[in-house]
Amino acid sequence: MTVVTLGVHIVDVLARPVEFIPQGQDTHLLEQIRITAAGAAAGTAVDLAKLGVPVASAGAAGDDELGDFLVMIMARHGVDVRGVVRRPGEQTAASILPIRPDGGRPSFHVPGAYLGYALADLDPALVTGARVVHLGGMDVTWGLHDPAFHELLRAARAGGTLVTMDLLSNMPELMPGARAFLPYVDHFLPNEEQALLMTGASDVETAADLLLADGPSTVLVTLGSQGSLVATAKGHVRVPALDVPVVDTTGCGDAYCAGFIAGLLDGRDVVASARLGTAVAARVAGGLGSDAGLDGMSVALVEAAGNERTEGTEGI
């Protein structure tokens, strides 16, 4: 496979617009309810597949009905799911997301099978044979906090594989474990809160530089409505967000990662790839769920849509 996404697999149930939780047995009518494959590995895999990038995903689901749905919907979107193991007696991780009218997304989450996913569950050939390996949620896949897995990543990179990494949580106690992966990562894509928690820095520029010193060649800090910061040894570049109507921010980070990876595979530099990631995230923000707005899309179509929205603005 061109890309392997490795890590967290979640089923999301989303509803919008939710302005309040009804009292007692009352019913509140909504415009839309969706169920999607999500999580820092599964969500990114689906977005890549919708962009036309050959992708396999590896991780863990339970042997329950939610796990059946997860592997079915990923396969339907074109993801190779042979690397998703089913763990007997465990629940598939799931979230319920009542989406507010402004796109905000409080969540109810049940961690599940991803917590126990370990190196023994993984075919090493998936990692060493990929052009890009995307680590999705290493902060919560504790079974991969294993020197043998770090060595597998080192061997893959020595063979020419690029390694990208995104996180799932904003829990301070999980950040040191995630930071231990950075010597084996080429491109790290945290959000602002994660970058600050990992480093103790007071601003994103300092945080990005501290994270670069741990080994990655690029640190891309996503900043929500403020776009993203791309940091390399050459300095910092700000990539602005696109001005789009926001329906739901669920999965925008996964979409940014998918667009960034697609840009690298298309031969773009890291800043141009970040711009493509921004355009993919903007598409997803305009609909409900982590894969919204990408059906029938391609890298070229997403880029064209992004260019239309930024025409006449100063380039970076």
UniProtKB/TrEMBL annotation:
- Keyword Protein transport listed: no
Tell me the GO molecular function terms. Answer: kinase activity
- Pfam families xrefs: PfkB
SUPFAM superfamilies cross-referenced by the UniProt entry: Ribokinase-like
The protein's UniProt keywords, in alphabetical order, are: Kinase, Transferase
Which EC numbers does the record give?
Answer: 2.7.1.-
Signal peptide span per the entry? Answer: none
Which CDD domains does the record cross-reference, listed alphabetically? Answer: KdgK
- According to the entry, every stretch annotated as the Carbohydrate kinase PfkB domain falls at 4-290
Top EC group: transferase
Q: Which InterPro entries match?
A: PfkB_dom (IPR011611), Ribo/fructo_kinase (IPR002139), Ribokinase-like (IPR029056)
Q: Which residues cross the membrane?
A: none
UniProt xrefs under PANTHER family: RIBOKINASE, SUGAR KINASE
Q: What is this protein called?
A: Carbohydrate kinase family protein
Tell me which species this is from: Sphaerisporangium corydalis
